[in-house]
Design goal:
Largest sheet: 3 strands, antiparallel
Strand content: 5-15%
Distance between the termini: 26 Å
Shape: globular
Oligomer: single chain
Number of domains: 2
Strand order of the largest sheet: 5-7-6
Order of helices and strands: EEEEHHHEHHEEHHHH
Number of helices: 9
Helix content: 55-70%
């Protein structure tokens, strides 16, 4: 993106930017932030539960209140105390990680601390650029025939959930676990019978199961990535006052998105275990999609 009234808006990259390699593994700025969030959560809960006491201190009391609140929320949503306790570790992990990951993107320095490195550019992109654009972007061809943008500014940190790979990975875990729990509850035959009733709707049922991956991953990614882009652009245009308003909204939307992801996970598992059929799944999804549209 270019200058607007003498104000340069930072470049917005849809995929996470690569920072370095560890062997064959590519590490992006979202991967780095994900590791920081995970380490921070492990250290926090390790310190909070290191010296458990009958009369809890502040940190222990905070953790216990959070856990009790999440367990009550899971139980009321699932409608089955036994099932809620079985899936509570998953739900608590998802909610806490998504919430902290969403908020990590609002910290000072996220998206504004840069490193300089050569960034690969596809041949298709270069083919559509004029010579002036290539010179402006400092795009050069390497001896092996590939192209790079020399000395590009790459953000060192990026919110984990502003990367589709992160949200897609969590969505795949949830959807696979839903199928496993459905098979364990009803047996393979009972699960396949549920999926194939009535027979002519079997393809639609399968598509519905697969569409949950897209629903979970794109909803979270779109809201977090879009919110960060909005805050970045508003800060570039207006600096302090107006972006502060949007930061406040992002705090609210970050919590809502963590809540929606967790609620949908509970509903999917509850319906798979209870075998209530596709109609009720669609009803629940419709209600949550409508509430999500109003809130975020």
């Amino acid at each position: 993106m270019g200058p607007i009234i003498a104000i340069t808006i930072p470049k917005i990259s849809l995929p996470a930017e690569e920072l370095f390699h560890i062997g064959p593994v590519k590490i992006t700025n979202s991967n780095l932030m994900m590791l920081i969030v995970m380490v921070a959560l492990v250290v926090f809960f390790a310190l909070a539960t290191r010296k458990l006491a009958v009369v809890p201190g502040r940190r222990q009391a905070f953790v216990e209140s959070a856990i009790e609140g999440l367990l009550g929320f899971t139980t009321s949503t699932a409608g089955d105390r036994h099932l809620a306790r079985r899936i509570f570790p998953l739900i608590a992990t998802l909610f806490i990680f998504i919430l902290v990951a969403n908020y990590s993107g609002l910290l000072p320095g996220i998206g504004s601390i840069y490193i300089h490195k050569d960034v690969p550019v596809t041949g298709t992109t270069v083919a559509t650029m004029s010579a002036a654009d290539k010179a402006k972007e400092n795009i050069q061809q390497l001896p092996d025939g590939t192209f790079v943008a020399k000395d590009e500014k790459v953000p060192l940190f990026r919110s984990p959930n502003a990367d589709l790979n992160m949200t897609l990975g969590m969505a795949l875990i949830v959807v696979v676990l839903v199928q496993v729990m459905g098979v364990r509850s009803h047996g393979l035959g009972g699960y396949l019978k549920e999926l194939a009733t009535p027979a002519f709707l079997t393809p639609i049922h399968i598509i519905g199961e697969l569409s949950r991956v897209i629903s979970l991953s794109f909803r979270l990614f779109g809201n977090i990535f879009g919110g960060e882009v909005l805050v970045t652009v508003m800060y570039a245009l207006t600096y302090l006052i107006i972006p502060t308003v949007f930061l406040g909204l992002e705090v609210f939307f970050g919590a809502i998105q963590a809540l929606l992801f967790s609620v949908l996970t509970i509903i999917y598992i509850s319906l798979a275990v209870g075998g209530h059929g596709e109609a009720q799944v669609e009803a629940h999804e419709g209600e949550l999609a409508e509430s999500g549209a109003h809130l975020g």
